[in-house]
Amino acid sequence: MKTKSAGFTLIETLIVIAVVAILLAIVAPSLQGVLANNQTATLGDDLFSSIMMARSEAVRRETIVTLCAAADNTQSSCAASASTANWQNGWITFLDPAGTGTVGASTNILKLEPTLITNANINPSASSKITYQPSGLISTGAGTYTIKVAGCTGSTGGKQIVISASGHPTLSAVSCP
User: Fold this and answer.
1) Are 45 and 120 within 8 A, CB to CB?
2) How far apart are CA 46 and CA 33, in angstroms?
3) What's the pLDDT at 52?
4) How far is 36 from 41, CA to CA, in rounded Å?
5) Quick one: residue 6, left, alpha or beta (phi over 0 = left, psi -120 to 50 = alpha)?
6) What is the edge-to-edge ordering of all strands in the sheet holding 91-95?
7) What is the pLDDT of residue 1?
8) What structural domains does the chain harbor?
């Protein structure tokens, strides 16, 4: 007597694999947009928290604190100007009692923030440096910082940090093409 074995035939397995492949091909492009939106949100939150930390440390330590775009991947100096600033290199937050806005050998660095997202775009409307006075007021860097990662989508996919003339930063969502 012949017994029937349980399992799937080769044809059934190939059909399931083909259906799964078609579904993945349909879903994959939208997942890339979701990933880019999440990277944008993370980068925006990281920069915003660094700005908030710089302001609070200036008040707490009663000294000038500067946050600047790193000049290169070594994060050993600040970018010279807004036109040469590449925020993709990350940023440096440091005590700046003399108010020079430069990192030296004896500079007390509070935080180095490397960006690991290579296709990010941070566009400052002001400068490559954000400097807070001991009072918590800003002396350099008030303006708008727009953050977008290539591939982000939707009306709320981008992030924008606006630093008022008094130094108060706000974070909001913006449209991302």
Assistant:
1) no
2) 20
3) 97
4) 9
5) beta
6) 109-113, 91-95, 65-69, 129-132, 138-140
7) 59
8) 11-174 (3.55.40.10)
In this prediction, residue 84 carries a pLDDT of 67
Q: Which residues fall within 8 angstroms of residue 174, CB to CB, at 6 or more apart?
A: 146, 156, 158, 159, 160
Token representation of residue 72: 């290169």
Structure tokens at 89: 């290199």
DSSP 8-state secondary structure symbol assigned to residue 137: -
Low-confidence ranges of the chain (pLDDT < 50): none
H or E element at residue 31: helix 10-61
Q: Is 69 in contact with 85 (CB distance < 8 Å)?
A: yes
Strands in 143-149's sheet, in edge-to-edge order, are 120-124, 143-149, 158-163, 169-174
Sequence-distant (6+) residues with CB within 8 A of 151 are: 32, 33, 35, 36, 119
* Both tokens assigned to 96: 């700046």
pLDDT digits (tens, 9 = 90+) for 7-16: 888 999 999 9
